[in-house]
Amino acid sequence: MEGDCLSCMKYLMFLFNFFIFLGGACLLGLGIWVIVDPTGFREIVAANPLLFTGAYIMLAMGAMLFLLGFLGCCGAIRENKCLLLFFFMFILLIFLAELSAAILAFIFRENLTREFFTKELKKHYQRNNDTDVFSSTWNSVMITFACCGVNGPEDFEDIRHVPYSSLEKSTPEACCQRELQSREGMFVNKEACLEGIERFQNRQGCYTVILNSFETYVYLAGALAIGVLAIELFAMIFAMCLFRGIQ
């Protein structure tokens, strides 16, 4: 009976580690996509140190889970106590790091509100000054997502960091409609847009557009994170039980 239980635990351990292996592969692929994505998202990530660091952390975590899933599978099948102990310690460290990151994200969630972004935009945005990282990042966001400001073009009415021409009102050219949503895309009618004719402007705020675009992925990422934490917890339990059961 004890041998059958140990054998069952070994194959369950292999199964859980196989899922960790797949989860690590997904995170690794997602991290690589964020860094090399050619559609404009890479510019946004590179311009923001926090996002840039987060992308590489995700890449490193994916690679580590990928490796540990592989080691866990080998340790379970071969019943190697050293590999199992090594696997348990590293999974425990990763589990604690992920739990800490989730707690910090919950604590600092107020920094992702509409009011926070609006305040930062009005304080730091310098219109077409591409030498300024903040302004260049916002211009990339508005061009890529065909949006304007946080809430809409009205966000720019009180911004006076850089003077604009007599034709140009408060709306920056990044809010003007383009035939192709990229920096190389031709304007539909730039002069009319800058004069304030609404049908040539992107009127929807970026906060709503981005929230709608990523809402499904946020829930998916949250569900995936909970699933990964649960799998890691069970994998640690099985690893320790298998470690103690091996003679």
Automatic annotation (TrEMBL):
This is Tetraspanin. Its main location: membrane. It comes from the Eukaryota. The lineage of its organism: Eukaryota, Metazoa, Chordata, Craniata, Vertebrata. GO terms for cellular component: plasma membrane. It is a multi-pass membrane protein. Pfam families: Tetraspanin (PF00335). Gene3D superfamilies: Tetraspanin. Belongs to the tetraspanin (TM4SF) family. It comes from Melospiza melodia (Song sparrow).
